[in-house]
Amino acid sequence: MELATLILFPFFGFGFVFYFLPSIVALVRGKRDTLSICLLNFFLGWTLIGWIIALVWAFKVDVGSADSHRRRPCIYSLLSPSSAATLYAFARVG
Q: What's the DSSP call for residue 77?
């Protein structure tokens, strides 16, 4: 029983993280459409096309708007400096 737990726990744990990867990327990057990306990922992520669309949307750079001069709160402000630097280095794209 313990051996099965040791084998299955990482499989399901990594699967959960992999399934919600677009949502995690959107949260880390501070996207303005984070809720929409999370909902798309939650409801249509089980289809391959829904997951890919959510992932591309999460990595896409936000287009500047009239409110772009105001700084939005970011997840990095909630973390310790070393954790924030690690996440920033991991999620930085383009």
A: G
